[in-house]
Amino acid sequence: MTVHALKKPNVANLRSKVSPEEWQARVDCAAAYRLIDLYGMSDLIANHISMRVPGEPDAFLINAYGLLYEEITASSLIKIDHEGNVLAQPDFGELKYGVNRAGFVIHSAIHMAKPDVNCIIHTHTWAGMAVSTMECGLLPNTQTSMRFAKISYHDFDGVVIDTAAREALAKDLGDNNALILRNHGLLTTGATIPEAFNAMHRLELSCKTQIAAMSCNTPLIKVPDDVVQETYMNFQPHVRRPFGVMDWPALLRKLDRIDPGFRD
């Protein structure tokens, strides 16, 4: 291994070079990366969280391919457009990090098709991948999983590196804010970063609970369809405040106690 590969990325702070709105988006996006790692949902340098740049509908922030989630900061995020062109990139020196191709394709597909979606989170957790292989899909067998009673699915057709796959990804997501990529992993979206993170946290918990229950080798209690539907409706946007509004400030306080470096 070369010596420079062991160096810690030293990224200059970009706060003075971007709008206040973009800087806030960068801070929140970096926080989401740290939280995904903190709650056991990261996969080394793989996977992505993207955030549309406020005031720039055709641009979004995404992680540099080569950083662990625990290393990501507001300034280390790369700004790209829907065609993958780099609009702004910090100087990583000899490390020369770029954007992962699959991340660009998956996230650009949804950002292009869904102007109301500003944040997208994609994970490869053991629980999410396990449920993604199940023919039954995600079961509405707990109150938490009933939130996703009408979750979307996208069939696996190889590593997503061809932009031709974007149309099918967006179509399969439909009007839902959560998608199970079969034989692959999980994806959630939101108008805000707190919404998307809250959805992923709950979707991950739903998958873990399903695997735990199914592993006990005992019959599962089936909730009546009308109760599932009523519970699902109680989680819909028109009947409650947006998800994450109450959680996010507390989560940021937690990160600040652990390591406020994500704000750099």
> What is the string of SSEs from the N terminus onward?
HEEEEHEHHEHEEHHH
Count of domain modules: 1
What is the average per-residue confidence, as pLDDT, rounded to a whole number? Answer: 94
Radius of gyration: 19 Å
The biggest beta sheet is recorded as:
8 strands, mixed
Give the strand order of the largest sheet, numbering strands 1, 2, ... along the chain. Answer: 4-3-2-1-5-8-7-6
Secondary structure: number of strands: 8
Structural class: alpha+beta
Q: What is the CATH superfamily? A: Class II aldolase/adducin N-terminal domain
Model regions low in confidence, pLDDT < 50 over at least 5 residues: none
CATH class: Alpha Beta
User: What percentage of residues falls in helices of 4 or more residues?
Assistant: 25-40%
